[in-house]
């Protein structure tokens, strides 16, 4: 998807998502940024906080879902109605977990940057076929930029990654 395929407003929201993805990268988190928009208003902004919290479920989308629930409570709104009118802008295709959560909440639209070839909720396993979603999905916006952020992160070592458990083979020709 080319930049011109999104409206000026959609480009604005994706710019915000990329800001949070870069912020995540700067604190050694997987660089995914996300923005939730309800009634033309940003109601949640977020990024991955998995390493920061030590909680593997704290993806950008999940953090934003929590924010929208809080927003709904303090504004005396039914969060189900809010989610159904919300558009999600995220730099990377939501993973299977996040896609399932977004589809289950009946999010109106998801606009994402690059595909998620390892964990994507469309690319790896199409969650929408199981959940019969009503959510519209548009992908590929600034995909190369989103992928470059991921590549930058994975060049380094994830400080919270578990140690490699692959055992090295012993040399069978060892001298006694």
Strand-and-helix sequence, N→C? HEEHHHEHEHEH
Radius of gyration: 18 Å
Q: Report helical residue fraction.
A: 40-55%
Q: What is the quaternary state of this protein?
A: single chain
Structural class assignment: alpha/beta
Q: Report strand %.
A: 15-25%
Name its key features.
single chain; about 180 residues; alpha/beta; five-stranded mixed sheet; about 40% helix
Task: Tell me what you see in this structure.
- The chain is 40% helix and 17% strand.
- The protein contains seven helices and five strands, in the order H-E-E-H-H-H-E-H-E-H-E-H.
- A five-stranded mixed beta sheet has the order 2-1-3-4-5.
- Helix 6 links the parallel strand 4 and strand 5.
- Helix 1 packs parallel to helix 7.
- The longest helix has 19 residues.
């Amino acid at each position: 998807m080319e930049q011109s395929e999104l409206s000026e407003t959609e480009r604005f929201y994706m710019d915000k998502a990329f800001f949070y993805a870069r912020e995540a990268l700067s604190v050694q988190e997987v660089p995914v940024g996300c923005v939730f928009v309800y009634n033309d208003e940003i109601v949640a902004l977020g990024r991955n906080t998995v390493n920061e919290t030590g909680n593997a479920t704290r993806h950008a989308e999940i953090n934003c879902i929590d924010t929208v629930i809080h927003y709904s409570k303090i504004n005396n709104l039914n969060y189900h109605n809010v989610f159904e009118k919300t558009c999600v802008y995220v730099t990377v295709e939501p993973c299977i977990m996040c896609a399932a959560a977004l589809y289950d909440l009946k999010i109106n639209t998801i606009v994402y940057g690059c595909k998620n070839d390892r964990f994507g909720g469309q690319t790896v396993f199409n969650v929408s076929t199981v959940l019969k979603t009503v959510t519209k999905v548009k992908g590929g916006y600034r995909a190369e930029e989103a992928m470059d952020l991921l590549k930058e992160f994975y060049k380094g070592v994830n400080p919270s990654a578990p140690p490699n458990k692959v055992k090295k083979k012993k040399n069978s020709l060892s001298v006694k």
